[in-house]
Amino acid sequence: MASMTMIPADCSSSTAATTRLLPMSCHKGKALHFSRWVSLSNRLTASSFPSLSFKARASSPLISAKIVIENAAKVIDGKEVAKQIRKEIAVEISRMKDAIGVVPGLAVILVGDRKDSATYVCNKKKACEAVGINSFEVHVPENSTEQELLDSISKFNEDPSVHGILVQLPLPSHMNEEKILNAVGIEKDVDGFHPLNIGRLAMRGREPLFVPCTPKGCIELLHRYGIEIKGKRAVVIGRSNIVGMPAALLLQREDATVTIVHSRTKNPEDIIKQADIVISAVGQANMVRGSWLKPGAVVIDVGINPVEDAESPRGYRLIGDVCYEEAIEVASAVTPVPGGVGPMTIAMLLSNTLSSAKRVHNFR
Ligand SMILES: Nc1nc2c(c(=O)[nH]1)N[C@@H](CN(C=O)c1ccc(C(=O)N[C@@H](CCC(=O)O)C(=O)O)cc1)CN2
């Protein structure tokens, strides 16, 4: 939810005609119907679905009825999975507290006045409280120097009651993100953004101490829904340091065959269409159309894009990178936005903080 560029919410409108990843024109539904018709069998008849019979007679009754049943994708409920994970974490935290008297601690540093960042930080604090993690919050004013921020990080690096440190991103433009993230001690880097953790993630036979929360949440969703990754073709759309790049590394570690599609990729639709698993993290509302997906693909939508909505109390609502109402017809499983990957990000942060405290205190 970075800058609040309001865009139309329906899938038929391109949101950023300049990117090559976007379809030049969209005729809502047409390409989709074609891809649905190719994977049919005809166990059901149109008469089983009276509401469909008008549409069905125009083409093929048997086919149309069948489509509806077979192509209803499973909704991957990240909110529910995250809730379950938070329960598991709370149990572990009280077990550790009872056994060795240690309570995990998380330090969250917010720099500047971005509303969205402040909301995420507030949600992280509440999530910590709910599972029994001590949270320490520092607000560094927008006009602070890099050194002031580095000093805060340094204090938390030395504080034994803090097991995890994170600096909420993005940072104000006058601050050097690389320098700041490098300052977080690798053993407290619960965001997994330190180059040593990312480097270990990229190397075979090495283990990072922490894995970035959003990509970790994507993989956790696949695991918890019993979706096989090994041997599958996976496409990650976007190559950011926070999501795209680590998501691709994680999928590769899980023995998927991985392709990264980005703003310079030629024919992205053709590549995406071959994927059994698609993780989209580009931040372009409704960019990925149903017709770009292989029937039966699993779609993990990381995009959180605000679109104008006068009916919502906030004046906007959030939608993903993937045109949900089209994807749900083609894919075998899809994450919604909101309620998909987003809640998993915070659940994975809590999980990383707990693992950090366990590691330091050698608690199994
Ligand atoms: N230091 C970090 N900065 C940022 C990270 C990060 O992992 N570490 N990720 C994002 C923001 N983020 C957490 O920090 C985050 C984003 C979204 C959600 C979430 O739960 N979204 C909900 C919708 C929320 C709403 O309605 O406003 C959803 O998708 O269901 C959690 C965390 C950038 N910065």
Automatic annotation (TrEMBL):
Keyword Transcription regulation (UniProt): no
Highest rank taxon of the organism: Eukaryota
One GO-annotated biological process of the protein: tetrahydrofolate interconversion
Assigned GO CC terms: cytosol
Record domain Tetrahydrofolate dehydrogenase/cyclohydrolase NAD(P)-binding: where: 212-359
Family: Belongs to the tetrahydrofolate dehydrogenase/cyclohydrolase family.
Name of the protein: Methenyltetrahydrofolate cyclohydrolase
Species assigned in the record: Carnegiea gigantea
Upper taxonomic lineage: Eukaryota, Viridiplantae, Streptophyta, Embryophyta, Tracheophyta
